[in-house]
Specification:
By secondary structure, this protein is an all-alpha fold. It has four helices and no strands. It has one domain (8-152).
Length: 153
């Protein structure tokens, strides 16, 4: 009888220990819903970080394009229109022209609207920002080639 009581006691003890172990393991495991929400949060965080970095590079590229495009136009126009008239002025290289354009942009009044707010469109403004240097350069080249050059020689 003592052996049976011991074995029953041991069985009960083992059962209690297993139950306690299961309770501890259930508490230590995070539920799947928490894991899902953590994964979703990390996914959104990574997507936002990627968008921020991508946006930064887009803005930096647009600023660099604007600086180089308008700097080249300033450099070309200086050589085409200013130096033939004012021969004592120094020749400006491309790096100086870019720096001068960036410096002069500091004094530009950005609050003056060119067109009414209701007619503005961000797509149109973006396209015009890209196309404007090319249009100005082509018009300046046409003036230089067809108007200034025939009278210079």
């Amino acid at each position: 009888m003592d052996v049976r009581k011991k074995s029953e006691f041991m069985k009960k003890l083992e059962k209690r220990m297993q139950e306690q172990h299961q309770i501890k393991s259930e508490k230590s495991e995070t539920p799947k819903s928490n894991l899902n929400s953590n994964n979703q949060f990390m996914g959104k965080l990574i997507a936002y970080l990627f968008a921020a970095v991508f946006g930064f590079f887009i803005i930096a590229g647009a600023l660099a394009f604007g600086a180089f495009a308008w700097g080249y136009i300033f450099y070309s126009f200086w050589g085409w229109f200013v130096l033939p008239v004012f021969t004592t002025l120094p020749v400006v290289n491309i790096y100086q022209a870019i720096g001068l354009v960036m410096f002069l942009d500091l004094f530009k009044n950005m609050n003056m609207p060119v067109m009414k707010e209701e007619y503005r469109d961000s797509t149109t403004q973006s396209v015009m920002t890209i196309i404007a240097p090319f249009v100005v350069f082509i018009v300046g080249w046409l003036v230089h080639y067809f108007i200034v050059m025939p009278y210079a020689g």
